[in-house]
Amino acid sequence: MALSFCYPPPITCRLTAATIRSSHGNGNYTLEASFVRRAADLSDKSSGFTSPHPNFGCVIANPGGNVVGEGYLYAQGTTPAEVQAVEAAGADLCIGATAYLNMEPGDCHGDSTAVSALVQAGIVRVVVGMRHPLQHLRGNAVRALRSQGIRVDVLGEDLQSKAVEEAQKSCHLVNAHLIYRAASRVPFSVLKYAMTLDGKIAASSGHAAWISSKKSRSRVFELRGRSDAIVVGGNTVRKDNPRLTARHGGGHLPMRIVMTQTLDLPEEANLWDISEVSTIVVTQRGARRSFQKYLASKGVEVVEFDMLNPRDVMEYFYDRGYLSILWECGGTLAASAISLGVIHKVFAFVAPKIIGGRNAPSPVGELGMVEMSQALDLSDVSYEQVGPDMLVSGFLQPIPDLTPVIPSMNETSAIDPTVTPYEPNIIFFYKTWDPYGAFSNFSPHPIRMPNGTGDYVSWSSVEHYYQAHKYVGVDNPQAQQYVEEIRSAKSPEEAARMGRLVQRRHPDLVRPDWDSMKIDVMYRALKFKFSIYPHLNSMLLSTAGSILVEASPHDLFWGGGREGEGLNYLGRLLMQLRSEFLGEYSSSSESTILSP
């Protein structure tokens, strides 16, 4: 039986200078701001279908002000928005055109595909909504484009007007999760709750289903789909027994996180069913060891903390690479998260109901405030009617200011060579947008590998190849079908999700020699990847003398683990390849020197 995965609808909208001027008035700044806003809107197209990632959109307009091509990054490790827009426009229409980007390119360190596409297409000018928030990428693409003779204008720096400010704000909002994460070093966190008109999230008895309308609950499913994970407290598990699924017919499913100090949780709970999506329980060190073993037997991951508090937990999930977290917890945990400064935005669904009750719980517990002047104000507040309910949303912490422009690490090193961007002895890598992110299996580097019959097969990434080879050679039509579905997955993320899901559901379809062969499968794919791409080979060789660690705290085979307890086989293989490549280089140099 085939797996069903849902994808966002194709882009059909096309803007023209005439339609933009009629909607927004005349003037070049207004027109250009509209193109940048369009790029920001495009960049959000994949939300809910893939795990949160930096959002990139690109709009190409010819000198006459007509849009000739556009695109957006679908997922981590897929075709850049700039490449899609150039391909949509075609070679002739790109010459002399302007490209409008919501954010400076830079999804994968060491990969210049996006910049090269614009340069080679004949783009003469690029308008950028904002520089990249991550320091190791900030300003690099702008500088690279300008070095190729392309004029680059950055909103707020080179272009300024009221329309420009609004467009710049759109760019900030669509990548708020990335901006907050870069500034605060915790994932972007949203607190969501539904309450009655008199401020209650449940009756005095604790009964809470349903406060909000069906339409509001559908919006909550959308919010979940835009998140890496959903956080609840132990009390929510005990009283509501939630499933915390996205329920949008496919696409991205966020992780479920339960925070509980005592681990006083029921043995039977919907969250212990991990057939569709995983659950992580975070608790105080030493809490109910026997119950921890029980959860582990169910496949639920348990993470212990010396002192359990929301900030430590969020810093941990920051290290795991999470960008966005949705909190659907009770008032006590919400108050603690707000007090510790990890909640950035609030979504409050207010239902036109009154339930009363002196002991009925409210959405936020004790914050220690005694005067109204101490109340926390939301900024950028929005009001929206959703069915009979009112949705009030706003930022609890303002979006961090990206100005003045802070130099990238490369720029700083050029000014002061004693400043080195990375720890020289240990280099960590994980997400593709992090430093050395191109070492990840999810990086957008296709490979062509032999299929054992003398032919070669193309794979979109190392992750596609690795996941599919769990089922290669199995004498079963269903296994062969899964191989093709994984190979055709639109992103490395989806290939990984498919491969792991099939492995959980149909362990009988996994090739019997997989445990003994998986390292060899990974080695072959990595060797091809780092042999065929010169800039990746150079990057790998540049790490000579450093230990490479895949910084996954939960994958204890391929990753290094949370406290170095992982086997780090991915890092080991890369170091082995580095040694082999250095040996080949040394042998080649010796041959050159010794030859007459």
UniProtKB/TrEMBL annotation:
Coiled coil: none annotated. InterPro entries: CMP_dCMP_dom, Cytidine_deaminase-like, DHFR-like_dom_sf, Eubact_RibD, NADAR, RibD_C, RibDG_C, Riboflavin_Biosynth_HTPR. It catalyses: 2,5-diamino-6-hydroxy-4-(5-phosphoribosylamino)-pyrimidine + H2O = 2,5,6-triamino-4-hydroxypyrimidine + D-ribose 5-phosphate; 5-amino-6-(5-phospho-D-ribosylamino)uracil + H2O = 5,6-diaminouracil + D-ribose 5-phosphate. Keywords: Glycosidase, Hydrolase, Multifunctional enzyme, NADP, Oxidoreductase. CDD domains: NADAR (cd15457), Riboflavin_deaminase-reductase (cd01284). Pfam families: dCMP_cyt_deam_1, NADAR, RibD_C. Pathway: Cofactor biosynthesis; riboflavin biosynthesis; 5-amino-6-(D-ribitylamino)uracil from GTP: step 3/4. This is 5-amino-6-(5-phosphoribosylamino)uracil reductase. The lineage of its organism: Eukaryota, Viridiplantae, Streptophyta, Embryophyta, Tracheophyta.
